[in-house]
Amino acid sequence: MKRIILILLFLLASFLIVTVIQAAIPFRMTGPILTLRLVMGATSCVLGVSWLLFSLFALPRALANVIRNRKLNRKELRWGMGALLTSLAPVILIGTLLLVAPSCCTIKMPGKSYAGPLPALTPEQTELRERLRNHVVTLASDIGTRSAASHYRQNLAAADYIAGIFSNAGFSVTRENFFPTMPDMAGKPCVNVIVEIKGTSKPDEIVVIGAHYDTAVDTPGANDNASGVAATLELARAFSRKPCPRTLRFIAFANEEPPFFWTVDMGSAVHAAGCRKRQENITAMLSLETIGCYSDAPGSQNYPARILRKLYPTTGNFIGFIGNTSSGQLVYQAVESFRKNAKFPSEGAALPSMISGVGWSDHWGFWQQGYQAIEVTDTAPFRYPYYHTSEDTPDKMDFDRYATVVSMLIPVISDLAD
């Protein structure tokens, strides 16, 4: 009895310790830190499975010893009951998870995702498609790689282009300059490009719509993330003469990609920290991240966890609204608005931020300051085969469906800003 309970407790404690350490390791896309995370994750799985299997073995044995052997003394009986309770731990854990899960994540969304043939583009959507294409081609083909770490001048050229488009739409442009802390960036300022439309009745309540304009090193970044930048430009243009009750703030962020990813040098993290310091009331933040890839091929959609394949489509023809558990209400509102107005497939989820991919964009910076923020995405590497490669070029994008999604985000933003 004593040996059984000690083994169970050792496996359980080891599993919990390794899992906590693995979750605490900073995320990186490559390098030894990623390798360490993978090793710790594999170790956690092995320990967890061992604990579960040993518990299944120990449970009937403990029951047999406690119930059938009436000659056990008081000490042996205590050890037997301890082994029994420890063996029941997996059952208790699973039951607790089932009870707690609804409050830890939101996967049930309002309405239904659109199914059926997509309507033909309207004349307005056709014009929008061509403007989006022009922005994407300029950023990805004419300017090209836009990483401040490797192509600093091209990064600044992209910021100048974005500022020029905003200015041509009649906006007063603000450049939020900041100096990254990385030694290789010493003396090289980076810039967030910002325009704002003051709210008519609730100007102190702010809805932020943004996308990062930098790229992964040595990639043209058409879908990732010229698609999000172009959408931000055109959404700002759509609202330039249509003020809302709340203030709308459109931002092109610097430095989302490695080596800045998930650091204080991200442009979105810099801006969100400034918002918190100024005590600004950000009621919603939408990060437009990689939104130009769609496919009707079966199996074209993947997920970071196998269980999600049971809950969501395996065909990559939808737009996703993703947030952490604290942003569940915002995910729900955005999906509800989109499905009310759009004849386009959509999915939404508010999941624990530890799940791979949930925090992979500029909304992460706003989470760090306690703001509700979500990502609007085609799910990037879980669908797009050219993610972070030299093949991420404009010809890989589906501009018809991309334009449809952007046009259908207008009523979503209107509802959030109402």
Chart the SSEs and their pairings.
Layout: H1 2-24, H2 32-68, H3 74-87, H4 89-104, H5 123-143, H6 152-168, E1 174-178, E2 190-197, E3 202-212, H7 222-239, E4 246-253, H8 267-277, E5 281-289, H9 308-311, E6 319-324, H10 328-341, E7 346-351, H11 363-367, E8 373-377, H12 399-416
Parallel strand pairs: 3-4, 3-5, 5-8, 6-7
Antiparallel strand pairs: 1-2, 2-4, 6-8
Helix pairs in contact: 1-2, 1-3, 2-3, 5-7, 5-12, 7-12, 10-12
What does this structure look like?
The chain contains twelve helices and eight strands. The chain is an alpha/beta fold and 418 residues long. The chain has an eight-stranded mixed β-sheet, sandwiched between helices. β6 (319-324), α10 and β7 (346-351) form a beta-alpha-beta unit. α1 packs antiparallel against α2 (32-68). The protein is elongated, with a radius of gyration of 25 Å. The model has no long low-confidence stretch (mean pLDDT 88).
The largest sheet, given as strand count, sense and whether it forms a barrel, is: 8 strands, mixed
Number of domains: 2
Which sequence of strands runs across the widest sheet?
1-2-4-3-5-8-6-7
Uncertain runs? none
CATH architecture of the largest domain: 3-Layer(aba) Sandwich
Q: Helical residue percent?
A: 40-55%
Q: What is the H level of CATH, i.e. the homologous superfamily of the largest domain? A: Zn peptidases
From the spread of the alpha carbons, the general shape counts as: elongated
Could you tell me the strand content as a percent range?
5-15%
Element order: H for helix, E for strand: HHHHHHEEEHEHEHEHEHEH
